[in-house]
What we know:
single chain, alpha/beta, Rossmann fold, 5-stranded parallel β-sheet, 3-stranded antiparallel β-sheet, 9 helices, about 50% helix, transferase, P-loop_NTPase
Amino acid sequence: MRIVLVGPPGAGKGTQASFLAENLSIPHISTGDLFRANINQGTPLGRQAQEYMRAGQLVPDEVTIGMAQSRMAEPDAADGFLLDGFPRNIAQAEALDAYLVEGGRQLDAVLDLEVPEDEVVKRIAGRRICRNDSSHVFHVAYTPPEREGVCDVCGGELFQRDDDREETVRKRLAVYHSETEPIIDHYKRQGLVTTISALGEVSEVTRRAMRALSGD
Length: 216
């Protein structure tokens, strides 16, 4: 299957993408992984991306599209893939359409993970990270530490990253609504979109997505 996963920040796309890709035995292709791999390997596209990032500029669509197309052309993606974070806007969606048509392929489904905006803010703004080890992550509502502001694992100070502050989250949501959300209508016109509630336990959201993909 060839699947695109869409949803606002905080919807759990990365987590769901990993589970779904494993269940379907297809590669999980995320924009973040593409950038890291190309930069680490020093590919021409990776070097271009790094130049823009160092200058504090957005990486142009053509660079992101080139990375995605190169990854989709690899042997393990011949029979399917799950795209997470790509396409991010209409230009990228149209490029993906053209790439697939050129190869005689097509998307099978677009899963839209739906989360109320206030829940997104709650999920992200409630995160607290350990200053000693960023892999120690807590949440003030869902997984609070035993002692407020103190890491259960190592005793380090817990803090809120600037990216997790409510005002930053709401700005990210505004960008999502203006740039990424329009691709949902783009794919609805192709009859590909199924909207899935991303509320509840991770395993239940995965089951909803798998049922949608199976046509149930």
